[in-house]
């Protein structure tokens, strides 16, 4: 019974850690090196992964 409880707690903690690892937000601006204007439609990828997004112009 003690082994089952330990295994359950380990799986629970690993699951919580994995779900928290996926909740991150990156913010910033993609600017043109030539004229300093925002680049709309640029693809941004996390280095070494297939995780990415496309930059949109969001006027606030």
UniProtKB/TrEMBL annotation:
Keywords: Membrane, Signal, Transmembrane, Transmembrane helix. It comes from the Bacteria. SUPFAM superfamilies: Carboxypeptidase regulatory domain-like (SSF49464). It comes from Phocaeicola plebeius CAG:211. The chain crosses the membrane at residues 37-57. This is Uncharacterized protein. Residues 1-21 form the signal peptide.
